[in-house]
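Appendix B, Record 12. Input sequence as logged:
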Amino acid sequence: DVYFVNNSLDGLPFSWDFDDGTTSDLTSFKHTYNESGVYHPSLTVIGVNGEIITKDTTITVYPQPQASFIVVDKELYIPEEEAIFINESTDAVSYEWDFGDGSKSVEKDPRHTYDTEGLYDIELHVWSDNDCYDALKVLGAIEVFESGQILFPNAFTPNLDGSSGGAYNPNDFSNDVFYPIGEGLEEYHLEIFNRWGILIFESYDINVGWDGYYDNKLLNEGVYVWKVTGKYNNGKDFKKVGTVMLLH
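Logged structural output:
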C-alpha cells in the first residue's frame, strides 16, 4: 500500500491520478497497486486564479512474493522416514522454514526428521530480492507416528568350527552370525541368496540368523544378497534388500 496526503493550501479543488487507471478526490488515503511496475501518480490542483497546477512523483512497485509449498507425505513413520518439502513459492529468493518442533531451515526444498510423534504445523517465510515478504502456515500439515526399525550389518565372519544353526546371543560380539537389530516387529521373514539367485537360507524368527552355512557346509567368501519383509507393530509393512560380505 502507498499512502497519499494532499498538503495543498486554501482548500482548492483537486484530484489524484494514480497512473493505473484509477483516480480519487480524497484528501488522504492509501492506494494499492495490483501489478508491479513503475508508476507516475499525480495531484492536480486548480489555483485561486483558475490555473491548473500538477505535481507528480515516481513510484516503483516490486513483485510481491507468494509463499507456497507441498508436503510430499502427510503421514510419517519414525525413525525411518523423513519429511520432504517442495517449495512452490514465486518471486522469492530467500526462505525460512519452521517445522513445528523447534527446528528451522533456510534451504529452498528441505528435508526434516522428526524425533517425536505428533501433529505438526509447518510455516514458510519468503523474501524477494527487494525484501518484500510473504508467509504461509499450514496447520496440522504432518502427522508423525512411531514405527519399528530393523538394521543389518554389512559383513560377518562365520564360526569355522561348524554350524550353530543360526542361534546367537545379542550380547556376544563375535560377529559369527548374520542377524538384524530390530524393534517393534510383528512379522519377519529373512531370505539369503547367493550370486546366482539361489535361496540358501530363510528364517521367520528374528532370533535365528544365518551362520554362513548351507547344508552344513561353510560357504565361500563373497557377497550375498539378503531380503527382509514383514510388518511393524503399527501395521505398516516393510521390505528391505541389501548385501552382506561373508568373510573367513
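The chain is about 0% helix and 50% strand.
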